[in-house]
Amino acid sequence: MDSLELDFSLDVRLDNDCITLGDFPLCRLLLMNDSQYPWLILVPRRAGATEIYHLSKEDQQQLMIESSEVSETLADAFGARKINMGMLGNIVSQLHVHHIVRQESDPAWPGPVWGKVPAIPYTAEQLEEVGEKVKSMLSGEVAFTTP
Q: What is the mean pLDDT of residues 128-146?
């Protein structure tokens, strides 16, 4: 573990809005607490990173590998019509990558999810179901935390 990982801390807004599922080799894996969309977020565990170019070349490649794995997992697990990915950072500057399952039946389709409708937090049962689905598909890739 290098000093950038040792000094890493998750932005409080991400911590408040998400449920930590575990860690890939580079990124913390978060579930956005909005049951309207299966929505995972990757946060590279590198202190001070706000842009991809702040990462080493090796970390940039690892982020792409982990992001592709998350996208494929979400598409397969939830039958996505489309996976939306975004790295806005205007409010939360810490580097993080959103991966959102989109369906024609979701409340924001076809527009962006941000600000369209208020979040509906997961129930304990829904959270367990989504968590188990993600865990079963990413087994061996992610060191999962226990809720």
A: 88
Q: Provide the 10 A C-beta neighbour count for residue 116.
A: 12
Q: Over the chain, what HEC string results?
A: CCHHHHCCCCCHHHHHHEEEEEECCCEEEEEECCCCCCEEEEEECCCCCCCHHHCCHHHHHHHHHHHHHHHHHHHHHHCCCEEEEECCCCCCCCCCEEEEEECCCCCCCCCCCCCCCCCCCCCHHHHHHHHHHHHHHHECCEEECCC
CATH code of the domain containing 60: 3.30.428.10
Q: What six digits make up the tokens of 82? A: 């489309």
Residue 147 has pLDDT above 60, yes or no: no
Q: What are 141's strand-pairing partners?
A: none
Asked, for residue 135, whether it belongs to a domain, the answer is no
In a domain, 147, yes or no: no
- The reported pTM is 0.94
| Phi, psi at 98, each rounded to 5° | -85, 140
pLDDT score, position 139: 85
